[in-house]
Amino acid sequence: MTSGFLQFANHYLMWNEGPLIWISDALIVLAVVAIVATLTYTKRWGWLWREWITTTDHKRIGIMYLICALLMLFRGGVDALLMRTQLAFPGEHFLNAEHYDQIFTTHGTIMILFMAMPFIFALFNIVVPLQIGARDVAFPYLNAISFWLFFFGALLFNISFVFGGSPDAGWVSYPPLTELGYDPGPGENYYLVAINLSGIGTIATGINFLVTILRMRAPGMTWNRVPLFTWSVLASCIVILAAFPALTVALALLLLDRIAGTHFFTVLHGGNPMMFINLFWVWGHPEVYIVILPAFGVYSEVVATFSRKAIFGYKSMVASLLLISVISYLVWAHHFFTMGAGADVNTFFAIASMCVGIPTGVKIFNWLFTMYRGRIRLTLPMLWTLAFIPNFVTGGATGILLAAAPEDYQYHNSYFLIAHFHQTLIGGVVYGMLAGMYYWWPKMFGFKLDEKSGKIAFWLWNIGFYVCFMPQYALGLMGMQRRMYTYPANMGWNTLNLASTIGAYLMGLAFLVIVWQILYSIRHGERDVTGDPWDGRTLEWSLPSPVPEYNFAVIPTVTARDMWWAAKYEGQMEHVRPRAEDIRDIHVPKHTARPFLIGLSFFIAGFGLVFEWYVLTAVGFASVLCCLLLRALEEDDEMVIAADTIRQHEATLGRV
Amino acid sequence: MKRGSRWWRAGLLALAPFALAGCGQDVLVLHPAGPAAREIDRLIILSVILLLVVIVPVFALTIYIVWRYRDKPDNRAPYTPQWTESRALEWIWWSIPMVIVGVLGAYTAKTTFALTRPPESNSNVVTVDVVSLDWKWLFLYPDQHVATVNYCVIPTGVPVQFVLTSDAPINSFWVPQLAGQEYTMPGMALRLWVQADHPGNYYGHGANFTGKGFAEMSFTVEARSESAFRLWAQGLEQHAPALTDAGYQLLKKPGVTGRLSYGNFPKGLFDQVVWQDGGQYMSGMWGTPTMGSMDGQSGSNLASLGGGDGR
Amino acid sequence: MATRAHAMGEPRDGGTRALALEYTHAEDRTRILGFWIFLATDMILFGCLFATYLVLRTHMDGGPTPATLFDMKGFGAETLALLTSSFTGGLATLSMRDGRQKSVAFWMSVTIVLGLTFLGIEASEFAHDAFIGAVWQRSAFLSSFFTLVGTHGCHVTFGVLWMLVTLYQVLRRGLTPRTARKVFVVNLYWHFLDVVWIFIFTVVYLTGMVM
């Protein structure tokens, strides 16, 4: 019995692999115990189920996405610190090669797919319906399904480290390295299944928000009056819908190669690894635009609000968003200039990649000229936006360097590349997400996050960022390769690596300060009693904070761009302020457990695929079909909020 | 100005290691030792200059605007909240980047095509076939009939074509001071032109992740004078043991070896490696191994080779 | 023309109903739009599978070729079944516009039977292929063929189940805006699969026979 258990423990739980595994196990167990204990002690199980797990309210779903994104930022950040600790000194073996390989794989995958994506979806959910004057998204039930698919996909991916082993072939997972011949075991399967699982949710989100923006804008909100954040969400959704199916196919075919013995990308029997690489990057390049476009949208809102000035060049800004979306589809081969495509193909993709920098540059100038002759307030969202400008411009510039194919022959897969994409992803996406989080936090929760600790975190992060990543440009030029678990002492890389590690730790410290800031502000943060703590310009600021379940008691009529500003300062208030006599009953979707159950069923099915325990897969898929059937036959999925209730609620807030 | 000066301090702190590092001999990419790497270096310098044309104004504008237009009660700078469009400005910031992209694009195209040709026309081309393995580099000299592992010797001043393949996952052959990198693909043969100006030992490393032992995939390119190169090859041929088929199978096994030298190797070994598994995914297009283009001027700095002349 | 307007959802009698049943409620119109967008993503998915097939179809690795596999009678019959089923699905939608519940049920049943016929022929084709050793583990060509055609087949299977559930609802609850929308959407899905099949028929089977 014990020997059987020990075998299981060593094979699946990897207890023979040392302290990293044991510590992770211990932390997971502690975390689960802590959560269960707290919920039981405070008698909040019912509340959790009713208010969160079965919700279809976009605002709640947005908050859940945000919490997950921050947790994944923590996990991905720990991965980063482990790597940087290893690389602080040459010849270190605190992590063996296999663990290091797993860690850089999970770091990349988590940060892009399970941190950046939920972060943008958090903002999509919280902001878009409010900005366009709608009561919810077009498909609230589907919205909940999207969240739970993401959640269970992320969960599946995260348990890989302590059960079966994480993928270890890099976040891009190229065959033939990822074929069974070179990479047996469940690790890579976790990658393929978990990402596809959450990818289904992503496609659903894309459809949801596209239809929401197309169909559910308040009366009078013509395309010319749509806020720029909503425009950026529209552009991002178009890119999601066109790109994600390619990823689904790429990963599904590689999974078939691994579990069904097919030959899409194998070296034997006619397979072609280049097909995977093309399919993957046809998705992969648009993916980074999927995450940056909403960040650009955040910056537009923040710059306008905190310069007390409407955004400069609105039409140009919209055009550049859409241009970026289109051009992002024409550049994917720049991820493999060195794969032998030929000078003509490489030249085309090089020039196309340079072109995508043009609309991006236009946006930077438009933001600067919004601030020009405005009145700039240095709040936390604005600080992060201002820090984004030099950071992203530099990162974008190194992107142009990489776009020049012959230069890429030297930069490719070196630390120069790592520095570039971290600069654009952190300096562009993460800064934007933090700015958005700080900007819309009062709307979500009814209080502002503390400015002082926020500023400390801001400076720590920025200094840490430059100290961490600027040396990496140099390291790349000195010949240091990415994905090396250690490096020799005689290449002259030692000091720069140590500096880079120090910078990483500073960023880790900054993250801790942010966590402290959030906890502190729950008790002591300045309460938002007006609903408009920033003197905002768009419709979400016309609502109380936090927003009531039904959002708008009366759907506003839109007569101008920046409608809330027009209401406050240009005499348009009667179109926005609800009148008691206009309030009617409101139908909202009922809470339902099925999205959660669908997610759980897919989790079980996916788990079965990872380990090729097909009974689980069959059970999981059968359960999904049952849930779909129940939904199809469902007649009554709405409940009513009575007009009187709404009138009373609005009255207590002093709004009617 | 408090905020402005903080920006300068942080900026200098960040740039310092980069600027200082650029001077050192360790910055291999910026110290080219061969014509191919030099071409790339020239393009790097040109592109950095072109980009500074955009970056410097952006940084300057940012600092100026933030400093001047703060929301302070005593700020007497103009406040024009209604000014939100300017055709002139849009023309400027759409067209200047387009011009920059046009110029850089033209030079990029020129360099990309130039790198597909040998660095200088010289009938004395040396061929080195490269097979990346887990986790070592095998170099086969078809004309000199010698082979080495984890190091190779090339003559200076002569174009060398490295013909790259892999008998392991996709890797990448990179000698930063001599040329850009090129992937080694199983079932394909790609050509990379390399030339060293002066004798020396040049650092090389695999540049695409291939698993556990990837960090060990460094190799050296030793450039020697033409006569020294010939002497070296003759010496190996006479004294070094031969690489047998069995020996190659041992090399194929995952593991790390040091430097090895061989005085001979099985005829057609490289072709065999490329064309194993039925010529794998190229088979439908190539038919038989003797077909295929050997056109050294076509396409990239690499060409898919038909092989078949007993290498 | 009255017939064309009728097909587009306008009322045949020109006045008593402003729109076809499935378009009368905003919620249903929104769902139909959402489904069109979903079909766009599914089209891209199939596009990637087609691209993979086009790249790998010459990589037979000395194994079975398209000529040995593709049997004109078999894929001809499949095509006939599926195309006809798309037509009968269209008839179901038209009946729905006329408010004729029994007719809707009838035509949907015919569609389901034809769909099952298609699946039956395809299953037997695959079984025969397996019998002669043409399995998807044999070569890249076979992997991509079976995946492309098989993915379409899975979509059809799901569509058949979906139609059954919709049929049940039509019988049980009659033709309401909601059930009308469901009939419309499932038939839209079915027509989409038909279009994909026409591409498969052309790119895979016909070109395979000719190559």
TrEMBL record, chain B:
Domain Cytochrome oxidase subunit II transmembrane region profile: 21-119
Membrane topology note: Multi-pass membrane protein
Protein localization: Cell membrane
Highest taxon of source: Bacteria
Domain Cytochrome oxidase subunit II copper A binding positions: 123-235
Swiss-Prot/TrEMBL keywords: Cell membrane, Electron transport, Membrane, Oxidoreductase, Respiratory chain, Signal, Transmembrane, Transmembrane helix, Transport
Record flagged with keyword Translocase: no
A Pfam family per the record: COX2
Major subcellular site: membrane
TM annotation in the entry: 43-67, 88-109
Database matches in InterPro entries: CcO_II, CcO_II-like_C, Cupredoxin, CuRO_UO_II, Cyt_c_oxidase_su2_TM_dom, Cyt_c_oxidase_su2_TM_sf
Family according to the record: Belongs to the cytochrome c oxidase subunit 2 family.
Name assigned to this protein: Cytochrome c oxidase subunit II
Automatic annotation (TrEMBL), chain C:
Membrane topology per record: Multi-pass membrane protein
Principal location: membrane
Spans traversing the lipid bilayer: 33-55, 75-92, 104-121, 141-171, 183-206
Subcellular location: Cell membrane
Domain Heme-copper oxidase subunit III family profile: 33-209
Homology family: Belongs to the cytochrome c oxidase subunit 3 family.
The protein, known as: Cytochrome (Ubi)quinol oxidase subunit III
